[in-house]
Fold:
Amino acid sequence: MNDDSDSSNGNGNERSERTDGGGWFRRLGKSIAGGPRSRSDILEFLTEASEEGLIEGEALPMIEGVLETADLQARDIMIPRAQMVVLEDDWDLDKVLEIVVESGHSRFPVVGHSRDEIVGILLAKDLLRFSRSDAPGFEAAALLRPAVFVPESKRVSIMLQEFRSGRYHMAIVVDEYGGVAGLVTIEDVIEQIVGEIDDEYDEAEGAMILKQDERRFIVQGLTPIEDFNEYFATRYSDEEFDTVGGLVAHHFGHMPRRGETVRIGDCTFNVQRADSRRVHALQVTLAADEE
Structure:
């Protein structure tokens, strides 16, 4: 009897160790029986699961991203109208190529007589045919793909489904009056889930500060404040924050979204890229010299 009892206890301990994860899932099921009380409850259990090794480290931020998209609308992640790179339908090939090469984008909205008249989308790859000596005459209108329009209130989660089902990669965001408010790409939506996706054109292959013109610069959020001060001859304090992104987020008082702007001293900071965790890139505009 004693031997049987000892054997039973040993097997019981082994079963307990083997089913530790199952016990956690049972606790999860009991805690949210009848439906979760809040999203924070779900995240709390997922965080615990990650800490216990039941969810891989990179999976948790992705799950959080999926949950966050339920609250996001097109206006929250769009590239604002003022920052859109567009082509005009009456430009010649040289002018079009100049903008395409300079920006490094693969798709471009094409406007007519005004920036609110989007007549189509031009793909950079469609310009390759004009590199041949026997290429036909260039006419932008003949190359245009139909533009897709979505309202500012469009849910990001629904947009992702429509991007996939419709097989398009860019949508023009319009306001309640039908005017162009900005644009959204499928990459913008995916970045809300998986985080920043860099390509070979992003921030000039890793440059921390990229000059656009005499007053505008693209600055990566992780740029040390000390380096920023040295470059721009500014005097921002680095006692509380080490990076420009941290400094800017502090002045907003919340984690800013793309398109939000704040002025700090003589510089205006416009958020170019950000997620729920940090600011990735900013457009810095220097104050104009007073006459």
About this structure: Residues 2-55 form one domain.
